[in-house]
Amino acid sequence: MFGLLLRNAKVRQCFGSSNFWRHSYFGIFLANLAVKSKICSFMKKYLGFAMVTISLVLVSFTPLYSIDDVVAAMKTGNANQLSKYFDNRIDLSLPGKSDNYSKSQAEMILKDFFATNTVKNFVVKHKGEQNGSQFCIGLLQTKNGNFRTKFFMKQKGDQQVVQELGFEMTE
Is it the case that residue 62 has pLDDT exceeding 50? Predict the structure, then answer.
């Protein structure tokens, strides 16, 4: 069987006359494939193109964030997870402080807020979309009381980012 494979012209065309291919099981397997299914010409023509195309697609892939991802992060009360969806600057409104902060500043302020107000749950009351922007109004239930919560997401590049986030104490 091995002698037939080595004598075949298709095998020599595809894989050359290298001793590696003659004496390795992997080489014999590939040679057998080339003989039986004529994969040699396919590999020459299309395999390189396919690998380059797949590589470009995988490298250029960026995650798309949705409002449901932000709601899930809000339910856990994890400021680190929530800050992944922030724009570079965000309008943050908490009881007693309201300003425009950088992404890292807003994360630190939210960590402090969630440490003081341990989150039990987040209930979505209303969410909507207009002109590619999304918004959500909900109730953040904490051990220290409930907060009416609103956030606004806007399309930036190829993803949605949170630009405004606000918490108001409810009675």
Answer: no
Q: Are 151 and 162 in contact (CB under 8 A)?
A: yes
Q: Cα 106 vs. chain centroid, distance in angstroms?
A: 22
pLDDT score recorded for residue 152: 94
Q: Is the pTM of this model over 0.85?
A: no
Look-up: residue for tokens 């902060």? Answer: 101
Tokens of 74: 């809000």
Compute CA distances 9 → 18, 31, 75, 157, whole Å.
14, 11, 65, 53
Beta strands 86-94 and 159-169 are parallel
pLDDT of residue 157: 83
